[in-house]
Amino acid sequence: MQLKESGEMYLETIYVLTQQKGFVRSIDVVEEMGYSKPSVSRAMSILRDGGYITVDRNGGLNLTDKGLEVAERTYERHTVLSEFFLKLGVSEEHAVADACKIEHVISSETFAALKDYYNKNFR
Question: What domains does the chain contain, in order, with CATH numbers?
């Protein structure tokens, strides 16, 4: 199963919330992303069926190794791209919004080159 952009966004959100709170439930994802409960519930079912998350008996969402890999990759892309755009003088609002769009479509090769350039010139 290949994830779509929305699946990557959900996994990234679960990852970030887990870092912040330790325990994440679907309602936390609803509140963070601003989506409806039924939409998040459906997405969690798809991610669970795809092997990206597990749901424990208390309703806690846990990333599997497969889900964690996608979430960390997406989050790294978002972070590096946002920081890069900010260093170029882009407003924070646009830097974050543009990074959020680009993080899902940029190739691994291009991202690696951009990250290398960023690290050499801005860190």
Answer: 5-69 (1.10.10.10), 74-122 (1.10.60)
